[in-house]
Amino acid sequence: MSENIELALQLLIVGMLSVFFILGIVTGLARMLILLVNKFAPGHHTQLAQKSPSPSLREIAILTATVEHITIGKGTIESIKKLK
User: Fold this and answer.
1) By the 8 A CB rule, do 82 and 52 touch?
2) What is the DSSP secondary structure assignment for residue 82, as one 8-state letter?
3) Burial level of 71, CB count in 10 A (0-12/13-18/19+)?
4) How does residue 35 score in pLDDT terms, banded at 50, 70 and 90?
5) Is the pTM of this model over 0.70?
6) φ, ψ for residue 52, nearest 5 deg
7) Cβ(75)–Cβ(68) under 8 Å?
8) Distance between CA 40 and CA 44 in Å, rounded?
């Protein structure tokens, strides 16, 4: 019976180590891919950050009416920011 337990523990350790090793390789390759893409890909994220159009008067009116309706006139809008 102890021979079976030894074999089971040996398989457990080998299996866990191989999974750990393969996941380490996958995460390392993923990090390298992210670094390469960030280095060589054109930077669209900087253009999006610069273009933050302010809401139109119609959108402000809609938001104000919605907040007043939901809060029964007790709420106010302090700032409007677009979430990423």
Assistant:
1) yes
2) -
3) exposed
4) very high
5) no
6) -120, 85
7) yes
8) 12
